[in-house]
Amino acid sequence: MTSKITVLPGDVVNRIAAGEVVERPASVVKELVENAIDAGATRVSVDVEQAGRRLIRVTDDGGGMAPDEAALAFHRHATSKLRTEADLFTIQTMGFRGEALPSIASVSKVRIVTVAAGMPVGTEIRLDGGALVKQQDTAAASGTTIDVADLFYNTPARKKFLKSPATELGHVCQAVQRQALAFPAIHFRLSHDGHAVADYPAVRSLRERVQQVYGEALVDACAAVDEKDGALHLEGLVCRPLAATGSRTPQDLFVNRRWVKSAAIAHAVYEGYGTYLAKGRHPRFVLALTVDSRHVDVNVHPTKREVRFSDQERVHEWVRSRIQAVVGPASVPARLAAASGWMPSQGASIHVASLRPATGTLDQTASFVETAAEPAQPYLPAVDLEVRPMGQIANRYLLAQIGDEVQIVDQHTAHERVLFERLTAQFDAGAIASQHALLPQMVELSAGEAVTVRAHLEDLRRLGFEVEEFGQGTVVVRAMPALVAQSDPQALLRSMVEDWEERASTPSVQERYNAVLATMACHSAVRAGRRLEQAEMRTLLEDWRDAGFPGTCPHGRRIAMRLTIEELDRIFGRLGWT
Q1: pTM over cut 0.90
Q2: Directed axis angle between helix 312-327 and helix 263-273, to 10°?
């Protein structure tokens, strides 16, 4: 009888492993850079062509390998970083399983040139689909260079699922940035098709590295964290409560220098902010947590993106308390706390001149952001009712009489919807009015963000922006849509980048544009905590009325609460008599 169970051939096993380890070009970059770090490199260069589809080359000045070691490195589970089972519980290196190189080689064409320290000559090895093609001595500088060409050439199904070149290059940038943040003392460089994308010279501290990667504005908006408790050490930057934004970028967490996703630590950070974080706002942070390697398990995910702590509750509570100590009331000037009520920064001022009657109505706009959940009927049936503003509550809600009803209106969401209607009407008409800046503004972006902006320059033009590349990670904003011209261009561009990245695979072009238009409106709308003059209140309420009294902002948040005359009569027991 023929057995139904057989042992899979080695090449099939390697391709299965590659499916877990090698998701996209960025996965290859991550694994090769980690090997360079483990080899003691002080300089790591990453060069990619066609966003990594055609070629990925990683060059380092590390210790290199002897000829027999280089050949053995492409065997499954061959590693220099583990010897016994006990070593799994004291991992100090970035790599340890011995799966990366054979997995990468099984789905590409690989060439490695390596020279061990003190050796007169080096070794060159070529592999095609995991099979050894050639091994020979060669002359080369100390260190290692690995070329990975034609990724997924022998697995077309995997290649088909790769995203656009801009998206894949963005992931490569992100992989290099994360390693650069984890190892500030190493010089990292990234180029694409021969053009420099990112260059991070070695620095002395994580703070300096964050400034290189994310810019000076983020560093200035953050407070430093440097706390120790025995084997626990938390270092990095967390934004002050008033600098929290609607974006979750960046939120980088490193455990023992490994970038990870940890729901427990992320929750501890949010808990540390507590009530100091306004609803709908998110902290930005870059944090490096060092833990005794005996008390953290990194062997729980094929790509090592997740970790488990032996005493997760203790780690969670300690991180929460340290974040709370940094971002609590004592860390913010009392006058700012009193003025803002712990709301986000005031942002752009509202201008009466910018609140003219809307040119677009709900009936003219066919589709909105998916989460809008717009009521089937207008908030009120008529749009010619008299508006009588009566005051402002806590500098965030407007109290008004509209017709015979009393309305409490959220000034931010109402203004956001008004701006969204106008931007949508202009966009549908084919031209969003622009306003040129008196002085062009320089905007610093991370390498990944700059790649996304470069890929969407035509979209930005259609949206009323005039943006030019200035240099590595820097763009010049010469014009912005007139309706949002008071917004911070850097914060706005970063939020738009996040929208594009989140909806990269969304088939509906209209949905992608609506999401960006909603972000533009949100950034420019009057903020909660902004005191409005009587004329501004009236203009805003009339604009909301002229838009058809929509019940939600483009992101689905409620705009107003209404009390009809019948409800007031019932509350005061006046039913049946006058």
Answers
A1: no
A2: 30
